[in-house]
Here is the input.
Amino acid sequence: MPLKATAIAHPNIAFIKYWGNRDDALRLPLNGSISMNLSGMETQTTVHFDDQLDHDLFELNGEPQTNAALERVSHFLNQVRLLAKLNTHARVSSANNFPTGAGIASSASAFAALALAASKAAGLELSQIDLSRLARLGSGSACRSIPDGFVEWLAGEGDASSYAVSIAPKNHWDLVDVIAVISQTHKPVGSTSGHKLAHTSHLNALRVMDAPDRLKACREALLGRDFDRFADVVELDSNYMHAVMRTSTPPLSYWEPATEVILWHVWQWRKHGRAVCATVDAGPNVHVLALKHELAWLQEVLLDLPGVNKILVGEPADGARLIEQA
Ligand code: DP6
Here is the structure.
């Protein structure tokens, strides 16, 4: 039985967002979501089950992790041990090549890479659907970093039917995600706590009720490469989620003044005919989605805006992949 495996996964950007769960422990979402995996950014994770260990060890970017970060990984490994009927503890070593916890979904690439590396190291041969379900237990958005390219997470009825599938390969559409990074610090309220607040906003029921229509519009626009229709629904969905966040108890706002300034400019550029639109996750950074021919111009104008520290560019990418098994 292999005891050690290394996997790589990319983060993803949601066009239709996951916000709020029907079941927090199983991460069964209130609504389905659609995303694109992002090339260039990745998490690489090695898992080694070692019977010499009396507890799990987790190192992130070379730093040993304790408390909540270690507990979350250990809790996840328990699910893998249960599936594989294994009692051994593991040494987990993970590295991101992009800023952790700043609105670029590091938990998505982290738990997608961990799900693949840990399941292979434990000797499991999971189907892509079962791997996506497993990754979902670590972080909801991680289930979308398992399949290739453009991906839809089907909300499902329960644990068995809530997983992500590829709806188009990475070369289907030359979209780019140009991330205007305005903060690299850790966010004050993590997504896991944020999801629990969604129910406290009266707007959330409306957001969820309308989600099937937005999913349909997004899927059709994406498959038909209709940028205008895509841009309308992506911005509507992001605004819905942030309206829910701001009207939760206690209210939640991830935006900084620079976030507003960038959004205002993106909306102006679009009005003037540029193929750009914007979406914001649980952090202050703005993800500017654009057709690739806008890339050089877009990087230049974004870097000129106040508060923009740097730009990261993600193109459509494949899902999680195994790079080593021993
Ligand atoms: C705003 O997947 O990070 O990025 O399941 O608690 O780990 P957990 O939450 P997470 O939530 C992502 C929220 C979002 C929207 C999205 O990616 O769909």
The pocket of DP6 is lined by residues 14, 17-19, 27, 33, 105, 107, 139-141, 191-192, 195, 281-282 (CB under 6 Å). The CA atoms of residues 148 and 319 lie 4 Å apart. The mean pLDDT is 95. The longest helix spans residues 227-246.
